[in-house]
Amino acid sequence: MAKAIMIQGTMSNAGKSLLAAGLCRIFHQDGYRVAPFKSQNMALNSYITEEGLEMGRAQVMQAEAAGIRPSVLMNPILLKPTNDVGSQVIVNGEVLGNMNARDYFKYKHKLIPDIMKAYNTLAAENDIIVIEGAGSPAEINLKQEDIVNMGMAKMAKAPVLLVGDIDRGGVFAQLIGTVMLLEEDEKAMVKGMIINKFRGDKSILDPGVEMLEQMSHIPVVGVAPYLQIEVEDEDSLTERFDSHREVGVIDIAVIRLPRISNFTDFNPFESMPGVSLRYVKKVSELKNPDMICIPGTKNTMEDLQWMRESGMEAAVLKQAAEGKVIFGICGGYQMLGETLADPEGVEAGGSMKGMGLLPMDTVFASEKTRTRVSGVFQNVSGDLQELSGTVLEGYEIHMGVSTLREGSGTLTMIQDHAATTEQKNDGAYCKNVYGTYVHGVFDKEEVAKAVIAALGRKKGINTDEITGVDFQEFKETQYDILADALREHLDMKKIYQILEEGV
Question: Is the pTM of this model over 0.70?
Answer without folding.
Answer: yes
